[in-house]
Write a sequence for this structure.
């Protein structure tokens, strides 16, 4: 094992990679699956569901603007754990929405969760550990975003068709908390 691989910062990179897998798998690629699922199962207008998805991303963008303050107030680990919990609650909310208006409440939760676990959060995890190798470390961590899309999108579609959206959401949300929380805490 090389000296650079023993550096503890590389463990942080793998944690950030894992967070990115879940964050993008659920928070970035998931809404496209939610759109089709909700339209097909509930018959709600695509424009309405799309507006809720837009709200998800706008809320995330608004929170990212204050992410340094959130990290100072809660700490990076607690912010990441909180993001995982909110993402889980958000996806469950999307899946259990009884009317289109409920989608917007779910979008608030999922949007905040997305902000606390997405790109700016990944950068915040990596930056304190790397100077010279920061681009390499960040690129490794962000590969998790691509993996999240490759794995989660077809898995979400398959699970929703097999067991339904609420059950699939509960499994994905629970998995995110069970994987991300101990890693972030560590």
């Amino acid at each position: 094992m090389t000296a650079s691989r023993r550096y503890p910062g590389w463990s942080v990179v793998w944690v950030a990679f894992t967070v990115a897998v879940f964050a993008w798998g659920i928070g970035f690629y998931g809404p496209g699956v939610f759109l089709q699922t909700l339209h097909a199962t509930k018959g709600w207008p695509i424009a309405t569901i799309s507006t809720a998805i837009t709200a998800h991303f706008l809320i995330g963008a608004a929170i990212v603007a204050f992410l340094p303050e959130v990290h100072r107030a809660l700490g990076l680990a607690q912010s990441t754990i909180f993001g995982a919990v909110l993402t889980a609650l958000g996806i469950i909310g999307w899946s259990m929405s009884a009317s289109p208006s409920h989608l917007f409440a779910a979008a608030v939760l999922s949007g905040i969760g997305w902000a606390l676990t997405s790109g700016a959060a990944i950068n915040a995890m990596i930056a304190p550990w790397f100077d010279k190798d920061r681009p390499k470390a960040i690129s490794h961590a962000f590969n998790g975003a691509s993996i999240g899309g490759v794995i989660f999108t077809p898995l979400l579609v398959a699970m929703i068709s097999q067991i339904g959206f609420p059950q699939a959401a509960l499994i994905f949300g629970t998995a995110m908390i069970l994987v991300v929380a101990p890693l972030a805490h560590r």
The chain has one domain: 25-185. The radius of gyration is 17 Å. Residues 94 and 139 are 31 Å apart (CA to CA).
